Every structure is written in structure tokens, then in C-alpha cells.
Fold this protein.
Amino acid sequence: MYLDKFKIKDQLCEFDIELNEGYIFDYYNSCGINFHDYQYVFPTELATLSLKYFLEKFPIPNGSIHTSQEIEITTPIKIGSKLTCIAFLDSIKEIRGRGIVIVNIKYTKSKKILGHANATLLVPLSWKKE
């Protein structure tokens, strides 16, 4: 199954992201948000960008579905911040011929945790890495 070589709570990867004004302007523009009114990153854009980077390292197999994303920001994150994201395997279960995988991503800056997100993926049980 997808990520079956990892144990629950294992770190899957670590990556850095920079929430620069160019990316954020494009995000706000696509959502119809007036850019100049904000100085902090929206949680949804952080969750979207971090999931994108995670999936670049661990692409989901054909037939998979990204079902949900939860995010909690405990400290506001200023636009232009550089963060380290650490992804962990939170859980993996088999239900009705599918694997339900939850990946937890912690957002850190200078080793301080600013928030975290959970992404839930439905993956085929029969998937094998080629």
C-alpha cells in the first residue's frame, strides 16, 4: 500500500517553503481577494502549498482521492515568512478496499511550531510502486 514502508508517526520528509508576495498575490487574485489589505498568510493557502510540496516527494497513486484537509495555525504567519514543514505519517487504515492515509504536516520557524495540518488521502490497496 502507499507509504507502507513507514510506521505510524514516522517522519516522511522535511521541506522549506517561502510564502512570498508573488505566490500570495496569485493566490489572492484567484480568490478575488484584495491583496493590500492583508499582512498574514491565509491558512488555506499554506495547507495547499505544503500539500503540493509533500505530493511532489510522495505522489499519490492513480485512483487516489484527496478527501480532506484540516489546518490549525497557532501563531499568525507573516507574508514573506520562510517555514520548515515536517511531514509525518499520522495513520493508515484499510476500509472497503481502500487505504485511508492521514499525513500530518507541522509548520515551524526557528524550531517553533506555528501550526499543523492533516491531509486525508484515499488510496487503492493494490497499488505497488514500480
Remarks:
- The chain has a mean pLDDT of 88.
- The two ends are 12 Å apart (CA to CA).
- The longest strand covers residues 82-95.
- Helices lie at 21-31, 43-57.
